Amino acid sequence: MMRGAFDHVPLTALFPLLTPADVDSLHQAAGTVDEARAGRSTADWEWVLEHAAFPGTQLGTPIVLGLDVNEHAEGGDQLEFLLQVVWTDPGQLAVHASVNVACWCETDHATHDVDALRLVVGEKTPLSDAFRAGAERLTGWLADPHDADHWRAKAGLPPRRIS
Questions:
Q1: How far is Cα 26 from Cα 11, in angstroms, rounded to an integer?
Q2: What's the DSSP call for residue 141?
Q3: What share of the chain is helix, strand, coil (3-state, %, to 5)?
Q4: Domain-by-domain residue ranges, the chain?
Q5: pLDDT at 40
Q6: How confident is the model at residue 16 (pLDDT cuts 50, 70, 90)?
Q7: pLDDT tens digits for 95-134?
Q8: Which of 36, 52, 102, 125 could, after both became Cys, cross-link 139 (CB 3.0–4.6 A)?
Q9: Is the CB of residue 101 less than 8 Å from the CB of residue 76?
Q10: How far is Cα 100 from Cα 105, in angstroms, rounded to an integer?
Q11: pLDDT digit string (tens) for 85-106?
Q12: In terms of Cα–Cα distance, which of 46, 37, 23 is closest to 128?
């Protein structure tokens, strides 16, 4: 996995069918995300060149490109904002954006997606449109409260247990 600024992401190596207009659109969308998280997190964009072609079935979700913005709190609590381009099981690209919180249920589920957007890339939804929609959703979430219990309450999950 490689990490760095979005300007360093080898977009045409990851997505060979992108037009110059698509590349510009991805840069603009990533720029809005970077502006929304300015001064907060030093998270870098991550990409896996080996996942440019569908890697076949494997455990987990093959991530091609993504950004993970973490907000850590005391007591092991966590709030995470994700924007990823991933392969789906049948070998289609999808853009996945989500808000993820640490689990405080009686049964430990580890984490929960409390809000998510998943758009499959295809003829009706090009990668540039799906990525822009995911980026818009992510920038909206980054403007919302950065309190995991706020998001848990919104999703009807139990609040963090204070020891």
A1: 9
A2: H
A3: 35, 30, 40
A4: 2-155
A5: 65
A6: very high
A7: 999 999 988 888 888 889 999 999 999 989 999 999 999 9
A8: 36
A9: no
A10: 14
A11: 999 878 899 999 999 998 888 8
A12: 23
Containing H/E element for 142?
Answer: helix 127-143
CB burial readout 32-64, b (16+ within 10 A) else e: ebbebbeeeeebebbbeeebbeeeeeeeeebbb
Q: Which amino acid is it at 1?
A: M
Which run of H or of E encompasses 80?
A: strand 78-87
pTM above 0.70, yes or no: yes
Mean pLDDT of the chain: 89
Q: Within a 10 A sphere around the Cβ of 121, how many other Cβ atoms?
A: 19
**Bridge partners of 117?**
97
